[in-house]
Structures are given as structure tokens and as C-alpha cells.
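Journal club prep — side note

Before the paper discussion, L.F. wants everyone to see what a predicted structure for a comparable chain looks like in C-alpha cell form. Sequence:
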Amino acid sequence: MIDEKNIADLGAYTMDAKRISAKSRSIAKEIVGDETLEDKIRQRVVIATGDPAFKDLFAFKNDSLTRGVDAIQRGCDIYTDIRMVQVGITTKGHECTIRSFIEFEPAENQSLTRTAAGAITLSEKLNDSIVVIGNAPSATLALCELITGGITPALVIATPVGFVNAAESKEWVRQLNVPSITSIGTRGGTPVAVAVMNELIKITSER
């Protein structure tokens, strides 16, 4: 019999999918451990990437999981940097609206990246939201500027990947007085951000 608590994916509907999901979670528990809710997040990322090294590449700041769960329970808005992150986040287990920064890029934008311009356009709408950035360091930097100016998301999940401003932008997030979950260094990406958000939704749904 499949242990439903071991199922890693709310989208695992068939018996075969549930079996694979449960086995993956069992392996990830051996790699990561299973003592805390933070371990659950690390497990999900290790599963999503197939990379055990990610268990040591995460930082959780300012009661991030509690704040994230509370925000999901009240049906907060979720904003992502790109559509790939948006479509990867499950619509099951919550009543949040999921939108991307790209949707809010002003038509006259000629200077900023599309994601950074969208974040700046949203501005105060990001208050009390969950922001999930998996790709764009520029969006992370723009978000940090907004937070420094007084915008207060309920939670920031930032795992942008790359060699230009990825590590630096995430370090800035960690220095801010905002709940955050970030990957450390240049590694990260869309699958990582989606895994973190989907596991947080799973944790919320189990409550």
C-alpha cells in the first residue's frame, strides 16, 4: 500500500505516478534527512533536480515557512518572474491566483529586462503576496529595491540561476527583513523555484 504522506507531488494521480513519487521521496529522505519542514523543501528540490548537493544550498530566513503557509491559507496572490515558473506551480491544494511579472511589463519599456519592468509596475500589489523567482536575477534585484523602499511580500522564494548577479541578488534577499527561501550561489533555476513552491503548497494542504 502507498503511504499517502510520502507522495511528493499533488499532481500524481495514477497508481504508477504515486508509486514513483513515493519511492522518490523515500530516497530523498535518506539523502536529506526528515527532521524539519525545511527538510521537506530540500527533499523536493533534490527530487526535482536529481542533485543531492542541493540539500546544502538553501537558506531559510525570517520564519519563512510559517509565513508562507499563512499566506497560502488566506489565498494570497502568487507572482512569478516568468511564465515557465507560473505554469509549473500546481493549482491544486490552494485558492491563490498565480501570475507572472511578464504580464505587467509596460508597453513602452525599452531599458529594463521584461521581468524587472513587470515587478516595478506591480509595486504595491506585491504587498502580502508570495513572489517566486526562478530565472531572472534582474527581477530579484528589482524586487530588492522595492522591498528596500517599503514593499513587504509575505514570502520571497528566489532561486535565479547564472553567473551575472544571480548569487549577489540572492544574497541581497537574505540581508533584507523579509521572509525568504533562497538558493546559495550561482545554482538554481525554474525547476528549483517550482519545487520549493509546490512543496510549500503540499505542506499547507496537509494542515
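L.F.'s comment for the group: The beta strands are 58-61, 78-80, 98-100, 130-133, 155-158, 180-183. Keep this in mind when we get to the figures.
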